[in-house]
Amino acid sequence: MTMNAAPTSGGQTASFAIVTTLFFTWGFITSVIDPLIPSVRAIFHLSFAESMLTQFAFFVAYGVVSLPAARLVARLGSATAVMMALCVMLAGCLLMPVATYVSAYALVLVALFVIAGGVTVLQVAANPLAAALGRPERSHLRLTLSQAFNSLGTVAGPYFGAMVMLRGGVFAGGGGAAARAQSLRQIDTSFFIVAGLIIALTGFIFLVRKSLAAGDTAPADGADTRVIRALRSPWALFGGLAIFLYVGAEVSIGSMMINFLHQTDVMAVTLEAAGKLLALYWLGAMVGRFAGSAAMTRIPAARLLTGVAVGAALLCLGACLTGGPVAGIIALCIGLFNAIMFPTIFTLTLERSSASAAATSGLLCMSIVGGAVLPPLTGLLADRLNLHLAFLLPMAAYGAIAVFAAAAARTVPSGVSAVARSAH
């Protein structure tokens, strides 16, 4: 660990609190896209598949930016990288009103990609910071707490977005130019508010930048951190596929949930009300993280992952085969089963991969690009079939994750890393 100054315990606590707000921020911004989808679909008269390109534009940044982000953080240090990431996110937020002013959906997608590029750098820098700012023996507790605030952001984001973007304008029955302009301005309002949050955070980060610099860590001597090394490990590839499918399934369901609940054969609620109900999907994930952590003290992680993956697949099947409020409740409950998937897939893979932890982690982070690929395919199914049957694609993804988990349960870890041990 490099250290510019000897930070006090109080200074580290303050720095950790600021870093935790970063987790909340990117969770909030990521989930604001869910109510943005029905908004742009109505404003620009898009198909489901076309509206899902919002998620493609956002999550493809993980595949494009992850590796440059890692090099950037290593070169500039965490504090500088975080401030740069926030500035990039701010630029994306301010590009959104330009996109709505010229009424160009393609420019909306560009703005989302820019925001996501900043979020990617932010994640690369903030995850190790959360673990490093404090006593080493409590690093897992700090990272878990930060992740809980990330989940809180994903609960608040859809509620806020629905309240601002999915009322009035084209959603009040107006089809004219004035109604369309009003809805476009509401998108502007959402991203201006997010921009204000980012400006405030950038100021706080600047004030505590020296304390944050104390959290910078260097890779272990002799470790090959190149992601290409992970491509030679079957377990790293298997885990990467599981992360790809998990993120794709979770984002696909969140992306179509508002339109699904809005249907007359499900809950028949307004899009604004459906957007607020979507917060329950993400709330389930937040509650499930705490419940899952408690369950892991008694149930092996791989076995628990098998159970929740099968449960999520069955709930997707239930959403396909049922109707009315029951179908809506079933769909919302999938969030609870999603809760432990990402961290559990991550640690199970680290335990079994023959590549270094850094190389394996890099591959797994790149696999988040699944959030760019599966949502448009799910939207295509919704266009060709219907929103009920679109749940078949996430169902298949959860089935594959169950296969990964069952295989992990039958495999003895090849060498449990310190990171993996601390996560169990």
- Runs in which pLDDT lies below 50 for 5 or more consecutive residues are 1-7, 416-424
- Biggest sheet, in brief? none
Quick check: average pLDDT?
A: 86
Q: What are the secondary-structure elements, in order, as H or E?
A: HHHHHHHHHHHHHHHHHH
CATH class of the largest domain: Mainly Alpha
Query: Using DSSP, what is the number of strands?
Result: 0
Strand % is under 5%
Radius of gyration: 21 Å
What is the CATH architecture descriptor of the largest domain? Up-down Bundle
Number of helices: 18
Helix and strand topology:
Layout: H1 9-44, H2 48-51, H3 53-76, H4 78-101, H5 105-132, H6 139-165, H7 177-207, H8 209-213, H9 227-230, H10 234-262, H11 271-295, H12 301-321, H13 324-338, H14 341-352, H15 357-366, H16 370-384, H17 392-409, H18 418-422
Task: Tell me what the structure shows.
The protein has 424 residues and is mainly alpha-helical. Mean pLDDT is 86; it is low at 1-7 and 416-424. It has 2 domains: 1-216, MFS general substrate transporter like domains (Growth Hormone, Chain: A); 223-413, MFS general substrate transporter like domains (Growth Hormone, Chain: A, Up-down Bundle). It has helices at 9-44, 48-51, 53-76, 78-101, 105-132, 139-165, 177-207, 209-213, 227-230, 234-262, 271-295, 301-321, 324-338, 341-352, 357-366, 370-384, 392-409, 418-422. The chain is built from 18 helices and no strands.
